[in-house]
């Protein structure tokens, strides 16, 4: 999969792209990331990428010309999505990441800055995406989260595919508690069922824990999960 990140601060991606599973995925060419700086597409001597908003107001807006030129300089793959990282967009969640990882060959990600982008930039955009209901100084951090979340779902990135299926949100519930050695740490003991070797009982315990944890921490998710089960087979 190809990622084209339109950003005024390409250096901010250096550490992220060279570390962990993401770095390994790029080294194995599971994905490729290209960083495009709108400042390189300006035509004035000051390389100006922002200006005051018409009608007045606080702050500056990113100008449309450098963004359009940046995106239009890119190759176009058949299955392409042009994403603007914006607090007004749909919130990133696991189904969205799965959709992007499955249905697209190219993601063009525009990182906004200042007070946002000129509204006409939306004529380029096919989807607006948000990290959450809060404001950051720019779109780079949300873009990194999107990039990381999508790449780790691509075949070959994670060694054991089964581990992706047993994570929080994959089945609509939060993940169950997990433990490793030692079995007793400062008086906190691993539940006996996990030491029993009885895989059926372990699976049952884990499912019960998922229900309890989701009810406690994210009752909204549990309600949604229950509604979906009721509308499906009803066998839960």
Summarize the structure in words.
The protein is an alpha/beta fold and 236 residues long. 36% of the residues lie in helices and 17% in strands. Strands 2-1-6-5-7 form a five-stranded parallel beta sheet. Helix 4 (94-103) crosses helix 5 (140-151) and helix 8 (199-217) crosses helix 9. The longest helix is centred in the last third of the chain and has 19 residues, at 199-217. It starts with a strand and ends in a 5-residue tail after the last helix. The model has no long low-confidence stretch (mean pLDDT 92). Its main location: cytoplasm.
Explain the layout of strands and helices.
Layout: E1 2-6, H1 14-17, H2 20-27, E2 32-36, E3 50-51, E4 61-62, H3 64-72, E5 80-91, H4 94-103, E6 106-111, E7 127-130, H5 140-151, H6 161-165, E8 184-185, E9 188-189, H7 192-195, H8 199-217, H9 219-231
Parallel strand pairs: 1-2, 1-6, 5-6, 5-7
Antiparallel strand pairs: 3-4, 8-9
